Structure formats: C-alpha cells, structure tokens
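[Automated response] Your request has been received and processed.

Submitted sequence:
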Amino acid sequence: MKTDYLSSPDEILKKFNFITPVTAAYQQFITANLKTVRLPKKHLLLEEGKVCKNVYFVFQGSLRSFFLNKNGKECTGWFAQQGDLVISPYSYFGQQPAKESIETIEECVLQYLSWQQMQVSYAEFKEANHIGRIILQQYYM
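Generated structure:
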C-alpha cells in the first residue's frame, strides 16, 4: 500500500461545504487527519472477517464489495466509483468483523479517515454530525 500525504483535502471539504458550511476549525481537523492512499487493481481493502477501521472516499478508480455464498462462489454486493463513500457498514459502525470483502477493480486513489478520527470529529464539531448523517442517507439511497 503506497501512501501519498501530499494530496489535497479540497474535494472532500467542497463536498462537506455543499452539505453544510464548515468551520475553519473543522477544515483544519480534516486537513490534518485526512490521508490519501494509492492502491493497485485487485487490492483487498477489507477482507471478510477483519474489522473496517476507516471510512474511504473514492477520489479515483472503482471498487466492489463481495462475499462468498454457500457454494464458495463470489457474489458482488455493490460497486463504488469516484465521489462515493466506501465502508462495510456493519463492520465499521459496530467495529465488528466484516461479512464482506472490499476490493479495488482498478487502480484507486482513496482518501480516508479512521474510525477513531470520525468519533473525535463527531464529539468536537457539530457540523460533522450533520455531514455524517447526510452522507449516510445518500449512501443508502
């Protein structure tokens, strides 16, 4: 996993500001904590049975979730592309082992925040709660 910390958080902040105005303090928090990673095609971002520890925003590329059915055949659950949010909801929110795997379909550039960083942002920044709720509504619709 090659990490590039030079990528700008501007796209994420633009998306957040579209939802609700963000304070300078929250912008600083995002700028300080948002990380960027470049992953090759066929990289397992999350393996079934492991805990999803980050929320990812797709900056470039596409991913899919999949699980193995009773016969051991891969079944795709969903696809994500540029601009989408990527998590395993059950695993991320409950910090429980994932029931699915998440894999890159092509080379990807992802920006992410850890579960711990998200909890801090919810506790310290009112707008983070509103942004999180709206993004989750969009994720499930």
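Summary generated for your ticket: The first helix runs from residue 10 to 19. The chain has five helices and nine strands.
If you did not submit this request, please reply to this message.
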